[in-house]
Amino acid sequence: MSQRNSISWLKTSVLSLCAFNLLASPTCLAQSSPPKPVTIQVDLGKSKGPLKPIWAWFGYDEPNYTYMKDGQKLLTEISQLSKVPVNVRVHSLLVTGDGTAALKWGSTNAYTEDSKGNPIYNWTIIDKIFDTYIQRGMKPIAQIGFMPEAMSTKPQPYRHYWKPGDNYNDIYTGWAYPPKDYQKWSELVYQWVKHSIGRYGQKEVESWYWELWNEPNISYWKGTVDEYIKLYDYTADAVKRALPTAKVGGPEVTGPGGGNSPVFFKAFMDHVVNGKNYATGKTGTPIDFITFHAKGAPKLVDGHVQMNMGTQLRDIDKGFEIVASYPSLKNLPIIIGESDPEGCAACSEDLSPQNAYRNGTMYSSYTAASFARKYDLAAARGVNLAGAVTWAFEFEDQAWFRGFRDLATNGVDKPVLSVFRMFGMMQGNRADVKNGLAYDYIRVRDQSVRAEADINALASKDAKTAAIMVWNYHDDNVPAPDAPISVQVEGLPNQRVLLQHYRIDKQFSNSYEAWKKMGSPKTPTPEQIADLEKAGQLQLLTSPEWITAKDGKATLTFDLPRQGVSLLKFSWE
Description:
With about 575 residues, this protein is an alpha/beta fold. The protein has helices spanning about 5-20, 25-30, 70-80, 125-135, 180-200, 200-205, 225-240, 260-275, 310-325, 360-380, 415-425, 440-445, 510-515, 525-535, and strands spanning about 40-50, 55-60, 85-90, 110-115, 120, 140-145, 210, 245-255, 290-295, 300, 305, 335-340, 385-390, 390, 410, 410-415, 430-435, 455-460, 465-475, 485-490, 495-505, 540, 545-550, 555-560, 565-570. The chain is built from 14 helices and 25 strands. Belongs to the glycosyl hydrolase 39 family.
């Protein structure tokens, strides 16, 4: 027997003996001691300012999934969970091709040229994508990219056929290069904006965000920093010529905390403020919002997934710090254009086992805990965080629960989507959650969640409702006892209040656990699919009940499993 197996056997034996009270030792006492209760104090009467819906932002690589069967279904559900318009960001809106959908690929054929090099504009597929959003009251983040084949300085090879397990660098083909002619590029952008105004109206297009490219500090951009800046100048000028009131921004760099990203980011910001504009010759460049990306870094440790929320929060904090260092720009809206536990949405669990967090409740608890800390980081740096894009959607016609970073599989919602349903019920101002808990945003940023669990809350209140989201998160996805929770609330109205307690855990709001109980069918029957769809909806832990808040106070107690999330919703007349 190996040393590791011996230790495992010994641990199991001790637990068994303790269970039968055959050992009266400190070891048994430690194993059988109940978890320490956690008290969360919420003061609904103490406002911390508006709770901006920074969560109502989503994105994905494959634009042609937008109007496919499961894509349309999921977009409908996303639009319905939010009281405010949801913003949607996708790649490849200017890529040349026939619109065939594939992993890490999409195309619209918006721009081609005739035999004499004259432009041919075709907005059919872009319109199909944007119509799908507009019909649902959603707002496109119009990503201006990537390079059409006829315009690329290195067009071949152009179309890639990447799949999970292939070299990731194979995706960076002719679409990633600078244009041969910046004037032609500028005219393409101008024509796109003008077409959008004609189709959707000026007021609608004014509500969109027009952004340039994606992660130009890595291989998504095969040009130099200066060439990206030049492209931005020509792009921003074209957008503003077509619609002076349009919102345009960038640079969508990734990983502000390391590599070449800070250098790229600061070079861009310096140019926006003081540089000579390549398109106009004037000083500076129009910018209405600022974008960057931030990702975590999960890995396998002793056979289980270990997340690293701290890595993501440090990148966010560094991005905020860079923006705050420019006095003339620090109040502009910031959009974290991709804000996720790690980088590759299309890298499936079967080939990337560290991504095993995606199907179950670890993804949902991570999302709850990390979004709450984004508010804190923005407030500490004094910047204007408008949104954080969750880069997750759906992957059409793939195996059930394959482990992509998605919100639904084959039209069935995963647990993470119900966290956003919870966020959608949080309105008004952010309420104070009092100190004394194990983690604050500084500790999570600096240490991640490697010691005790992060059990905490985010709270909100408006004129007729209040909501408290409580999570029990840990970076290590290992079994742990349920945590006894006591939520002490003050600031409720002195009257009868309706309480609804929603829950995401292994038993509630969890299509993945339901699928496993079915035997993990590769081809579920129609009856099984109906059951899975029901299991994927946000569910109540208990029946709604009326409570009376004496002197505006109430105490609620419940057990919360590890990686579980609860939402306590109060409403009154």
